[in-house]
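The protein record passed on for reference:
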Amino acid sequence: MSKEEIIDFLNQGTMTAKVSTASASGVPHVAPVWFMIDNNNNNNNESSRPKNRDDGDLVLVFTTSEKSVKAKQLLGNPKVSVCIDDQKPPYSFVIINGIAEIEHNPDHDVLLKYTTKLAEKYMGKENSERFGRRNAVEGELVVRIKPTKIIAQKNVSD
């Protein structure tokens, strides 16, 4: 897939990202998360739709509790692998290996913006504010995955 095809694929529908982390002893942990793409990679991004940038950055963003296994493991080892795949023919997928940057104690407005955008994607516009507020709580972290390698294939069964 081209970069544009990857971005379009990641922005379609409500596929979850399967985030794989590892403990200090190397034990893997996989968890599904709601995600969005943020090519601007700053707190002033007003759209979950990525903007094309000359530097080619593609940043996957999700939120999680600081008490979650994935958060604890990412704090110890920021290397991460993420898989996003569709579950219907002709089957496509994107695998992102990268480094997680964790924003501790994000500004509430920034956190609310991300949780509301995620809620809109997964729960619909009519529920976005309610779910956004529900998830923008103390102890919630903003996690940004910066890819080091992307593997993508579309229409696997064709």
Observations:
- The CA atoms of residues 115 and 134 lie 9 Å apart.
- Confidence is low (pLDDT under 50) at residues 41-55.
